[in-house]
Amino acid sequence: MISNASKYSKIIKAEALRLGFMQCGIAKADFLEEEAPKLESWLQQNHHGQMAYMENHFDKRLDPRLLVDDSKSVISLTLNYFPDAEQTDPDAPKISKYAYGMDYHQVIKDKLFQLLSFISEEIGEVAGRAFVDSAPVLDRAWAKRAGIGWIGKNSNLINKKSGSFFFLAELIVDLDLEYDNQFETDHCGTCTKCIDACPTDAILSPYVIDAKKCISYLTIELREEIDTGFKDKMDNWMFGCDVCQDVCPWNRFSAPHTEPLFKPNEQLLTMKREDWLDITEDVFKTIFKNSAVKRTKFKGLTRNIDFIKKTL
């Protein structure tokens, strides 16, 4: 006889795929014992820079039962964002692929709420919360526990069949489900391509990132002026950075997404170097109307462009 936990898990995973998620895995809501000392050490060494929010809710980051009362399961999901086209001018300032389309927070939250609603309708009253990159949840650790993939040397979660160009999200629910086996094998082997390719040497050692050196941090999180020591190391990036993913051999398996809301503004892809150097606030608002790039604001993006333009 199939248990309720097994039956519920199967219908949840089927609905997740129907909603457009690429993978769905489930782990038991428990204390992340293995991650606790790693997180503490990373914070103590100030590798998080100005991301002070990483210091908050330390206990909640390690135990989902402190986020959702009586939580039993962490449902981990991935959503592909690999584009079928990229910026056409090789000399133009570059923007990370994940920010080509609509802000992923909006897109994924909507899908998560639909999935949570489905669970309540099909199974019964279930308490739970949806998380997308904006709450104290260690999403890569949970995705690994849910069997989706392993954490690579660049600290991104990698899946053997689809690489790493995908978003991570979670539903934490007070429902007993059938749990997937944790992904145990590290398939990076002796490869160090991501470490060798990082323009700013932000990957201090396998699995350890100094965010203060990461181009994504410098162009998005950092609110003050970028240190001049990075002047010739930005590799033409004005928002985010994809270098460590672009060189990863596992991303040869990346396939274009099928999410209409991630389709980029055509103008974004065709703008030439000169267009970016002369970008106005009105053009910024038009291109990035519903984009994650709005997080930097016009002032932040032009700061980044001004910083790299002498090397363009």
Describe the 3D structure.
The structure is a single chain. It is built from twelve helices and ten strands. By secondary structure, it is of the alpha+beta class. The chain has a four-stranded antiparallel β-sheet, sandwiched between helices. The protein has a two-stranded parallel sheet with strand order 3-10. Helix 1 runs antiparallel to helix 4. The termini are far apart. The relative contact order is 0.18. The model has no long low-confidence stretch (mean pLDDT 95). Its cofactor is cob(II)alamin; [4Fe-4S] cluster. Its EC number is 1.17.99.6. This is Epoxyqueuosine reductase. GO terms for molecular function: 4 iron, 4 sulfur cluster binding; cobalamin binding; epoxyqueuosine reductase activity; metal ion binding.
Question: What is the helix content?
Answer: 25-40%
H/E series, N to C?
HEHHEEHEHEEEHEEHEHHHHH
CATH top level class name of the largest domain:
Alpha Beta
Please report the total strand number as a whole number: 10
CATH architecture of the largest domain: 3-Layer(aba) Sandwich
Largest sheet: 4 strands, antiparallel
Uncertain segments are none
* Spatial ordering of strands, largest sheet: 1-2-7-4
Mean pLDDT: 95
Helix and strand composition category: alpha+beta
Radius of gyration: 20 Å
Count of helical regions: 12
Strand content: 5-15%
Tally of separate domains: 2
CATH topology of the largest domain: NADH Oxidase
The first-to-last residue Cα distance is 65 Å
How does the overall form come out from the CA principal axes? Answer: globular
Subcellular location: Cytoplasm
Cofactor: cob(II)alamin; [4Fe-4S] cluster
InterPro entries: 4Fe4S_Fe-S-bd (IPR017896), 4Fe4S_Fe_S_CS (IPR017900), QueG (IPR004453), QueG_DUF1730 (IPR013542)
GO molecular function: 4 iron, 4 sulfur cluster binding; cobalamin binding; epoxyqueuosine reductase activity; metal ion binding
